[in-house]
Amino acid sequence: MRILAALLLLLLSLGPAQAQVSQTKLRVATRLVKPFVFEEKGRLTGFSVDLWQEISKQMNVKYDFIVKLTVRDLLEAVKSKEAELGIAAISITAEREVEWDFSHPMFDAGLQILTSAQPSEGGLFGNIISGVFTAAFLPILGIVLLTILIPAHVVWFFERRHPAGVISSRSYFPGIFEACWWAAATLATQADQMPRSAAARIMAVIWMFSSVVFIAYFTATVTSSLTVQQLRGDINGPEDLPGKRVATVKGSTSAEYLRQHDIQITEFSQVEEAYEALNHGRADAVVYDAPVLLYHVSHEGKGKTQVVGPIFRKESYGIVFPSNSRHRKRVNEALLLLKENGIYDRLYKTWFGGESK
Fold first, then answer.
1. What is the count of structural domains for the chain?
2. Least confident of 12-21, 143-152, 223-232, 254-263
């Protein structure tokens, strides 16, 4: 009887403790990266959020999200036990496997390239205009326009008294306008008359030689500008990235890939900052996770950006845990069950369309 009473007392004491453990909320680290995790109307949503909600139902656990700024911050939160696990769009790599544990793959992905949308068929004229009105060329154009006033005034001064001169009016207005028109026409090699007075003819010869130099410089500048634009738009795959300005996210597998291939990169904390760099001409391309870029092209970047080339460096996303986590096995069991009962495919179709591979 004493033994039976002791056992009953032990069970009664363990019961509340076990119930308390089961009610403990898991701390789940994540980060904002559309379409996997993002904020909408004050709450988190996205593919990874919906997937974790289904996993937590299978595990019968409660949780709180801890939002981190970068992948590196998320991984450090898991490593330091600030969070029991992390979920977003976290690539499984051999390097990360050394310090963290991962679930079974929850999403198959890879890297892809984002560029500005190609111009339409009428874009050639626009390219020529943009080639002329560049920051380097506009000061030269302004100087030339001011310089036109010099031969114009010389020709007006000497030709206004000549009975057969190219200037019909002896007064400053409108005579100076006729002289400016002659100087501009000579610059474009379209002048149909030559000055009659000796001094004006000397000025005309000097101006004609200056015009040849300017036209040559003008042609070279515009051609160079158009060539640079053509090179910057000629990105069709990862083999075209060397020599280009490439934006990516700090601490990501895309940054690691680009450094390994000696490609010039600018790293940002958020992928949205990389999009801004591309839109404002500070980058020629963005290299990042394919599903994230595809989502951007079909939403905020629609009509302004495009993905080019195939998916490269194929990789899988997983849920990350500290080494030897007791939660990993239960999460894997729940994840496999969701794939078997069709819930995973339903979530995939909701966010990406089609069926998961």
1. 3
2. 12-21
Q: Strand 320-322 to strand 100-102: parallel, antiparallel, or no bridges (unpaired)?
A: antiparallel
Tracing tokens 């008359």 back to the chain, one arrives at 193
Residues facing residue 312 across a β-bridge: 111
How much of the chain exceeds pLDDT 90, in percent? 54
Same domain for 62 and 98, yes or no, is yes
| 300 CB-near residues (< 8 Å, 6+ apart) | 275
pLDDT in tens, 116-152: 986 544 455 555 555 555 555 667 777 777 888 888 8
Helix (H), strand (E) at residue 43: strand 43-45
195 is a domain residue: yes
**Residue 86 and residue 74 in contact, taking contact as beta carbons nearer than 8 Å:** yes
Q: Coil, strand or helix: which one is 192? A: coil
pLDDT band at 26 (very low <50, low <70, confident <90, very high): very high
CATH of the domain at 94: 3.40.190.10
pLDDT for 122: 46
Residue 100 · residue 323 · CB < 8 Å? yes
Identity at 127, one-letter amino acid code: N
- DSSP letters of 265-298? EEEESSHHHHHHHHHTTS-SEEEEEHHHHHHHHH
Phi, psi of 333 (to 5 degrees): -60, -45
Alpha helix positions (H), 34-148: 47-59, 71-79, 94-99, 123-132, 138-147
Q: For residue 24, give the nearest of 321, 318, 326, 324 by alpha carbon.
A: 326
C-alpha distances in Å from residue 294, one per residue of 160, 212, 228, 301:
68, 50, 27, 9
